[in-house]
Automatic annotation (TrEMBL), chain B:
This is ABC transporter permease. One of its GO terms (molecular function) is transmembrane transporter activity. It is found in: Cell membrane. It comes from the Bacteria. Coiled coil: none annotated. It comes from Pelagovum pacificum. The keyword Oxidoreductase does not apply. One of its GO terms (cellular component) is plasma membrane. InterPro entries: ABC_transp_permease (IPR001851).
């Protein structure tokens, strides 16, 4: 309770500070999906540190739960009213938020989507994100190379995010299959592949419980599964529990994406074979720099060459590197992890 | 106290005599069937459960009909099953509890953090979690029984409060399975499993089944159990006939909180780690199980055994459809159909025919 009151007080203090500062200094807003998910906590840390360094006032907003669209709309309106120079936004609802984003841009604010591209992606001035397709491709290549010739006879379980097939989940899934050498059919949706090596897709909601149930369902379809793609590390931890329950935890390859500290620790412990690590701290600090630049001379951030967004990088974390796939060790991964 | 003792005596002696019974004037199979459904509320979900097992068994064959698959369903529904038992008690009093999922996950977080943040012994941490769940239930119970606020509104509020506190307190950090195994294996107790001829049972599954049977017995054969039904059916009539409505409501909500805390313990056993993002949908899933299980949302009617069957029906459909290779969307589709069908059947049973 005291923590709650303290953070409320802090939020008011920040707002008051920003309001007082608006006529002289540059200010920026950070709007995340929630303020408790370690990924977004890291994002806020990155933004706060960079803002302090550049002397920018930072206001932070977050929805109560993932999917809290209304709060994000209010946050954008508050930001416009406060006269901020730019907004860093991790949208809960990538298409519905577009009209609010347009309003902000009409009012001269620079809007940068962090982590989650808007739909359409050019609704924001720029997008600073992980290349999720590449993140999937890296673990796919690693899994195929680790299996060697056996990759031809692989039995693959695909543990996806949820039935609505959000872009981040589709990109990772399709990236993994491409990396593994499987024809993906329509690249905009998962589940339409014809390759017999895929046992099936199931959804996890990105948490341990969902990961365990989904893994059990797929194992009931084919107990011989030997490769498991997971949308993120909590789902991977759940899948591992399901495999452990039937004594197969040591002969199945699990790969994942995220790079959170518990996830990287799971790579060290052999629960996960390899994971693709993303960098929320960089997304936010680069975003603040871009807003500072824009406020100074109106320069718009440029996307990475050949992509429609600014790529904040992704690295494969594993202690069993393979030829032809660049990776970093678990130790390096621990230094860069979040959460 | 003496009052309720004498009440017990009265019940015992009166049981010898014949009660007023519904006389069955209707003839034919439909009429008899209708009557059977009326007097045995768990019968409908049981029939649906058996039918769906047979249908999926015919469609899929051995992969579904094996002891392994059938006990897997039990494992998959154990959390929802335990939470739904708590939800049943609340709904029998004509209430509803939207905060059950939040209490469940927060209790599991309390158990984990007590060990790993404060270094308390695991036994104490588990007890702490159970006490915590009971206190959350007591908060709901006090607001409902003393402040006379509608249960829907109260638990709508406490759902948010408890879930938000859960995220703030845990900082949304996960405690990994490896650490729990090495330092506090007691937290994994509910996940301990044993084999009986290919069938895999866990302590959590046994707890769920035992809990449902104990509650079914308590609801049927104790004064407290009859009070719960009476309060749900008509609180004013219950009050006039000497039931302490406030105390009954408070005890039901506290017991519900305690059961949710046990579900939180079972959750740690099932997913291995302590994760503050789990079980957040348990409120809706538990209400689904209760409704499909034939307990009336208007209170005072239905059997807790039905809830167990309701949870199992959902589990059978989920695994069955996945084994058929259907898109996960179809699961939600059929669960929706089942919910509506369950309410329709409930209305049909209640219908008094001329």
């Amino acid at each position: 309770m005291t923590k709650l009151m303290a953070s409320t007080a802090l939020a008011f203090a920040c707002m008051a500070g920003a309001a007082a500062a608006q006529d002289s200094e540059i200010s920026a807003c950070l709007i995340t999906k929630t303020d408790t998910n370690p990924f977004f906590v890291k994002m806020r840390e990155g933004a706060s540190a960079k803002a302090e360094e550049l002397g920018i006032e930072l206001m932070t907003f977050a929805g109560q739960v993932d999917g809290d669209h209304e709060t994000q709309v209010q946050a954008i309106e508050t930001c416009i009213a406060s006269g901020a120079s730019g907004i860093l936004l991790t949208a809960s609802d990538t298409s519905s938020i577009v009209s609010s984003v347009e309003l902000a841009r009409e009012n001269g604010l620079l809007v940068i989507a962090l982590d989650t591209p808007l739909s359409p992606i050019d609704a924001a001035d720029a997008t600073f994100a992980t290349d999720n397709f590449l993140a999937g491709e890296l673990i796919g290549q690693w899994a195929a190379a680790t299996m060697g010739d056996e990759a031809e006879n692989a039995k693959i379980a695909m543990l996806d995010l949820n039935v609505s097939q959000p872009t981040v989940g589709v990109l990772r899934d399709q990236g993994f299959l491409t990396g593994f050498g499987i024809d993906v059919g329509d690249p905009n949706r998962w589940g339409d592949e014809e390759d017999e090596r895929i046992v099936g897709n199931d959804v996890t909601q990105g948490n341990e419980e969902g990961g365990r149930t989904a893994m059990e369902n797929l194992l009931a379809q084919d107990p011989e599964i030997n490769v498991v793609y997971t949308i993120n590390e909590p789902a991977a931890a759940g899948a591992y529990e399901a495999l452990r329950a039937i004594g197969r935890e040591n002969d199945v390859l699990i790969v994942s994406v995220d790079g959170g500290c518990p996830g990287v620790q799971n790579v060290a412990d052999g629960v996960i074979g390899a994971t693709s690590q993303q960098y929320p701290l960089d997304m936010a600090s680069l975003g603040i720099e871009a807003i500072a630049q824009y406020a100074e001379d109106g320069t718009l951030p440029e996307p990475t060459e050949g992509k429609d967004f600014f790529d904040t990088g992704v690295q494969l974390v594993t202690d069993a590197p393979v030829d032809g796939v660049e990776s970093i060790s678990v130790e390096e991964g621990m230094d860069l992890c979040w959460g | 106290m003496s009052q309720s003792d004498s009440y017990d005596d009265v019940v015992k002696t009166r049981r010898e005599e014949s009660f007023a019974e519904f006389e069955d004037h209707r003839k034919g199979f439909i009429g008899k069937f209708h009557h059977a459904l009326h007097v045995t509320p768990a019968l409908v979900p049981l029939i649906v459960l058996v039918a769906s097992i047979i249908i999926f068994g015919l469609l899929i064959g051995d992969r579904f009909f094996s002891p392994f698959s059938l006990t897997l369903i039990l494992q998959q529904v154990q959390i929802v099953g335990i939470v739904a038992a708590a939800q049943s008690l609340i709904i029998l009093t004509a209430g509803i509890d939207l905060s059950v999922g939040a209490i469940t996950v927060f209790s599991s977080v309390v158990m984990g953090q007590f060990v790993f943040r404060y270094g308390l012994p695991p036994t104490f941490a588990v007890m702490g979690g159970l006490v915590f769940g009971t206190l959350c239930g007591a908060l709901n119970g006090l607001l409902v029984s003393r402040m006379k606020l509608p249960p829907f509104i109260v638990t709508l509020g406490t759902w948010q409060i408890i879930l938000a506190s859960n995220y703030l307190y845990s900082r949304n950090e996960t405690i990994r399975a490896q650490e729990i195994s090495s330092e506090a294996p007691l937290l994994h107790l509910m996940g301990a499993k044993f084999n009986v001829g290919g069938a895999v049972f866990t302590v959590g599954v046994c707890f769920m089944i035992l809990l449902v049977f104990v509650l079914a017995w308590v609801l049927r054969y104790t004064a407290w159990g009859r009070h719960v039904y009476a309060v749900g059916d008509d609180p004013e009539a219950a009050q006039l006939s000497g039931v302490n409505v406030k105390r009954t409501l408070l005890s039901v909500y506290m017991l519900s909180g305690l059961i949710c805390a046990f579900a939180g313990w079972a959750l740690i056993g099932r997913i291995g780690s302590v994760s503050p993002t789990s079980a957040y949908e348990a409120n809706i899933e538990s209400i689904t199980a209760v409704v499909i299980g034939g307990i009336s949302l208007f209170g005072g009617r239905g059997s807790i055994l039905g809830t167990l069957f309701g949870a199992l029906i959902v589990g059978v459909f989920t695994l069955g459809l996945r084994l058929l290779g259907a898109d996960a969307q179809w699961t939600y589709f059929f669960i929706g159909v089942l919910i509506i069908a369950a309410v329709a059947v409930d209305q049909w049973i209640r219908k008094v025919s001329a």
